[in-house]
Hints:
Layout: E1 2-3, H1 4-10, H2 16-28, E2 33-35, H3 45-50, E3 52-54, E4 57-59, E5 61-63
Antiparallel strand pairs: 1-5, 2-5, 3-4
Amino acid sequence: FVKLLDLRLRLADIARGDLDSVLALMFTKQRINLIPESHQQSLSTADRESALRIGGEYKHLISIG
Length: 65
């Protein structure tokens, strides 16, 4: 798993809304896996801000399998 923050930094030229839409679609089509950080207290402010809210839960990590 990779932090969404790291992905967003690498894809900084893509608008947040556009990236979020694509990630949500890929998640629902089971192309990627998004999970919350299990140790919420270890998250930085930037980690929290980069999270994607899906299904009432903030997802901080991504896996492309």
